[in-house]
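Field reference: sequence -> structure
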Amino acid sequence: LPCISGISLDWQDAGTMVPNDTMTYRIYFGPNSNLPAAATFDTTIKISSLIALAEDRLPARQTHYWRVKATNRLGYDTLSVNTFSFMTYIRGDADGNGKINLLDVSFIINALYRGGAQPIPSEAADADGSKKLNLLDVSYIINNLYRGGPAPVCP
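Structure field:
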């Protein structure tokens, strides 16, 4: 796909009273906030409180929820109080069909000038990365598809 960027998740390190302790973090992902029960997959990392995922690990154009469990070297653990969420999308794929093509141009024109459906999320249609949806995004996609111009700007 022309524009898929990684997803970075960051959280506050868990505190510990154990001298020279190390933490392991397990991150749960699911389709709703009922985590870890509703987790569709999870991953474990050691020490760091930051992870970058390849976006193709999760389906596009969906909201994904995540929660972290920290475990110290003695096996004591704590689950994060908050559940976080993010939405995956392909920049330039305004209609959400998984491809960047002339249908996206038509979708943006309909959204802007004919009262058509708005792209979900709106960032998916922002091909030039300006944080505004306008005719320049249409031009950017056409330039990319038919004139060898640059791919949509990744966030």
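Note: The helical segments are 102-113, 135-146.
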